[in-house]
Amino acid sequence: MTPGEAAAELTGVAAVDVRRIGNAVYEVDLADGDLVVAKRHDAPGAALAEAASLEWLAEPEGPAVPGVRGHDDHWLVLDQVEPGSPTPRAAEEFGRRLAALHATGAPAFGAPPPGGPENAVIGSAPLRNAPSVTWSDWFARDRIACYVRLAVDAGVLTPAEARTIENVRVEAPGEPPARLHGDLWNGNVHWAADGRAWLIDPAAHGGHRESDLAMLALFGCPHLDRVLSAYHEAAPLADGWRDRIPLHQLFPLLVHAVLFGRGYAQQALSAARALP
């Protein structure tokens, strides 16, 4: 099925023009004048996982998310959001709204969005979402150990390096499960023409709210200081949260090591060694 055919089938409106805007991502003009984005997912359950994630994150007090127009086994069609530029004001509102989203909570650590699959993806890497009672056990098992094994299998971590990472102390203040975006690097914050920061490409699940913030800091986010200050004012973070940033960053760094190689494995090692 072509992107235009997928958009037409899932919206019920004929497609009149298609433009590729990314890897397996297309902008589609519909006959009724609407503009949508069609995304192809090859991994089983990935389109469902993203659709369920977006619907779960669409909280009135949280950051805006694109509307889901439809999905099937491989295609996801979303409302298009006109791009804009990041501003300090948008960053502060984003921080406050992200705090509100986290506070809406989740049934458990590791819980998938309602209707979402247990076996999802992050990028093109597998992502298991299975509810757990404690954050530390879940994070150590499903967000560190499993990707360490994949990295060793891929030859980007040695067994000795793997032990260094697996031996980190996984501890964070006791808080209820937060509703996380789950893949919140800067590229998944869409600064829109309407003056807001929108969330895109989520891998949503229940987790610790510090994880989303640590991922925002990992690859650089415009006006990050404004985002964090507004977040902390709206929902104060526990003492020592900055010291725990490397712990939470182990997960995305290991995923990147599995997908993109040795350089990210070395960053993961550096993060592990920075922890007490």
Automatic annotation (TrEMBL):
UniProt keyword Isomerase, yes or no: no
- The protein's superkingdom reads Bacteria
Q: Which GO terms describe its molecular function?
A: kinase activity
**Keyword terms:** Kinase, Transferase
Which is a Pfam family this sequence falls into? Answer: Fructosamin_kin
Spell out the InterPro entries in the cross-references.
Answer: Fructo-/Ketosamine-3-kinase, Kinase-like_dom_sf
As for family, the record states: Belongs to the fructosamine kinase family.
Q: What is this protein called?
A: Fructosamine-3-kinase
Source species, please?
A: Saccharothrix tamanrassetensis
